[in-house]
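Hi support team,

I'm opening this ticket because the web form for multi-chain structure prediction keeps timing out on my end. I have pasted the exact lines I submitted so you can reproduce it. The total is 636 residues across two entries, so I didn't expect it to be a heavy job. Is there a limit I'm missing, or should I split the entries? Thanks in advance, R.K.
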Amino acid sequence: MAEKTAVPTNPASANFSGLPVIGLLTLLSLPLAVMYAYLFIDTISNSQGGSLVPSEFTLEHWRFLWETRPGKPNIWLVTLNTVIFTCCITAVTLTVSSMAGYVLSRLNVPARGFFLAGVMVLHAFPSVTLIIAIFIVLQYLGLYNSLIGVILVKAAIDLPLGIWLMKGFYDTVPWEIEMAGVVDGASRFTVWRRLVLPQIKPAVMALGLFSFLSGWSEFILPQVLAPGARVQVLSVYLAGLIADDNNFDFGTFKAVGVFYVVPVLILYAFFQKHLMNIYGGGTKG
Amino acid sequence: MRILLDKFCKSFGTTSVIEDMQLEVGSGEMLALLGPSGCGKSTTLFAICGIHRPTSGRILFGDRDVTNLPSQARNVGVVFQSYALYPHMTVEENIGFPLKVKRLATANIKQQVAEIAKLVQIDNLLGRRPGQLSGGQQQRVALARALIRRPDVLLLDEPLANLDAKLRLEMRSEIRRLQRETGITAILVTHDQVEAMSMCDRIAIMNKGEIVQIASPSDMYNDPRTAFVAGFLGNPPISFLKGRAEQGAFVLRDGGLKLPLPALSGIADGTELTLGVRPEHFGVAGGIPVEGRVTFAETQGRENLYDVVLPDGSVLRSIQPVRDDVKPGAQVRWMLDSSSTFVFAEDGRRL
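Hello R.K., no limit was hit. The queue was backed up. Here is the completed structure from your submission:
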């Protein structure tokens, strides 16, 4: 895993100096860096109105971590909801895509072409346009305002991309490996599970991360389909803070924002190499 | 175990690849399916191991009809051209996989893997992964994996195609040794006549989905049934001359060469014929002198290979012990051994 992570200490190539490039990039990204810096600084300090320099250190904006604000759900319940929501979506997406992708890539199923085209169309379909219909369906099924309902919807919307990606990766696995497995006496399921799936492990990792991040940052579906206090996720909680005109607290809003983004940053730091698989060399469908 | 293909047919969609093939492989025999690419030899192999279902006909292992059995229930060992090792498993896991699928005890698997690994001489590599092995070693792993189930038949699909020349020579005798030691029935698919002749008891030569001739290598070399067979066997290949029959003799188109051949008695004058002359039968020994010009000379160390163009433009190949008196462009008068030539009718049938 770690054999190719040697970071070049000097980014300049032998032909030209890297300094001007670095200088230009620094200049261009400075506004972003400053904004991120103040996002963090503002959560642990107070400053006079109109001043950029913090005047005092304080943890009051992080109070939401240990005391529940009136009219708001407990932050740890919300975090737990978000974790459940995200993990379930990841699990469902991975399980279904890895199997469906295999079927579409390898098995001679009826209407295979139709399914392939269908998956493609669904992938391109803007999910927001469906939201009212989904709302009615969930209401009818009694799944409105429940985590299960919104998990199913979100997973279903993520699935076409996942299936298509998995199919592309399965297509690159040589047929001979499967033939060898079958001749060795393994059932088709064993062949898939023990021989083929391990070949596309990087793709499974990448898709898992991808759907985790996508689930973590999902806002519109939980907002519409599961807004209740018991089933709120962090994005909805965050939106609730800024929409609350009565006790508007920009410091807390920023603190929750930082709290919300930290897991994503950690994931990126550790797994960005796997994520590159999807963006870099993925679909060969 | 005896393998029998009885009236075997295979078509893909509307394309018929093999029609009415009849093939019997004796128990413990090694048979080569030899032919140019696209002649249906791999299709036949995949039908025997159960990856393709025959369109019609029967496949028998011993007396057991396996025509409708899936691969898993057939007990065959296959070595694929690309070896198809499982890249994420160690050599030991690769070889043990067929047994693991059968849910044998781990200790038992370990012991059997050790035995077979010793047989194919890779017992020092068991901890490695396929990516860390050379081509020849991968080949041995593939062989071990095919043999560990003690299959009824061992199928080899161009097993030497991915090896370099020296390894190929080594693995040729190695595969033959393993086949003899295990006494297993084996079928080798290849397009390389040298492989087929050196490794197998019998050769079935195929063309366009049909078996043209089945015989032992030397019988087939000395007594080819058609021009196709004669042209496929032998290296350097046989050369063909076009001509016609005239009073029991073969006459070149321009009349420049006349060969009395006993096989031609009773053939009407003027019949179009093809004469096949192997390179070793044109040179210093023989009865009929042939004049021509050397256009190409190649030294192979022990022997020299010459192309000789006859006055009518046709080419005869000659292989002779090394000599350095003949250069390209030289006019030569060499002898042709007419008793060793083959004469074929226009449709390729040997007369």
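A quick check on our side: The helical segments of chain B are 41-49, 91-101, 106-119, 135-147, 165-182, 193-199, 217-222, 227-232. Let us know if the file doesn't open in your viewer.
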